[in-house]
Amino acid sequence: MPADRLAGKIAIVTGAATGIGAATCALFAEQGARVLAADVKDPGDVLEGALGDRVAFHRLDVTDERAWAEGVAACTETFGAPNALVNNAGRLGSGAPVHEETAEEMRAVFEVNTVGMMLGMKAVLPTMLEAGAGAIVNVSSVWGLTAVANNVAYQTAKGATIMLSKNAAVTYAPSGIRVNCVLPGYVDTPMSRGVTPEEAERLVEFTPLGRRAEPHEVAPMMAFLCSDESGFVTAGVFTCDGGMAAL
Ligand SMILES: NC(=O)c1ccc[n+]([C@@H]2O[C@H](COP(=O)([O-])OP(=O)(O)OC[C@H]3O[C@@H](n4cnc5c(N)ncnc54)[C@H](O)[C@@H]3O)[C@@H](O)[C@H]2O)c1
What we know:
Mean pLDDT: 97
Strand content: 15-25%
Bound molecules: nicotinamide-adenine-dinucleotide
Order of helices and strands: EHEHEHEHEHEHHE
Largest sheet: 7 strands, parallel
Shape: globular
Number of helices: 7
Structural class: alpha/beta
CATH class: Alpha Beta
Number of domains: 1
CATH architecture: 3-Layer(aba) Sandwich
Low-confidence stretches: none
Radius of gyration: 17 Å
């Protein structure tokens, strides 16, 4: 993999404080991109270590359309107009089944995972359309593809992000903008550490590779999909799940 595969790329990565987002920012910088690392919470160790000439932190709530406009402006001022976006921010739901879920929780989970993703694309598309180029990676989940019991809010919100990505991909393909969707399986991050030990055991059991992933094992998917190497790849739905979706 060329060390400068992302040279010239100016990316906004959301949910960048920890986990997959932080690993993505670190890898992007390593590979020559400049990155606005956006999150509602403070940077964790990995992102902290990546901050510097190529990575700047920006506080951004993906559910806030005005905050998105400010984020794009901050990116443009610091690095230049964004030509890549990784919509990675996510919120795990209560885990409840339909008959126990509240409308408030359902809306809140959709608001971050799905509406936040739509607002992110909406915010960067004008400059990408003007440039006639751009790459967007939307982070869904293997649970957006295959159902397991309960967790109705998260699974349906993540399912919607797959169609949101395909819709944007076919809409903007004629304008030179590519949109792809990455579906992680069980990855060791602050989000997944919220599951019970029994759930953690079951997740590994349902992973043919027999283990959970580290965030740095997912980040290369984002790098490939934002690089020019993936120039013929759009509307793709890519699992990075240790084989989970095959079961
Ligand atoms: N960890 C897993 O096992 C797993 C599996 C499948 C999918 N995913 C998805 O991967 C993505 C990254 O999650 P992660 O596992 O690295 O967990 P994480 O908790 O480390 O990262 C999620 C980040 O999203 C941020 N965020 C939440 N709401 C936000 C908002 N309104 N605006 C801006 N940022 C917000 C959080 O502050 C957090 O930093 C998420 O979309 C998640 O759903 C994770």
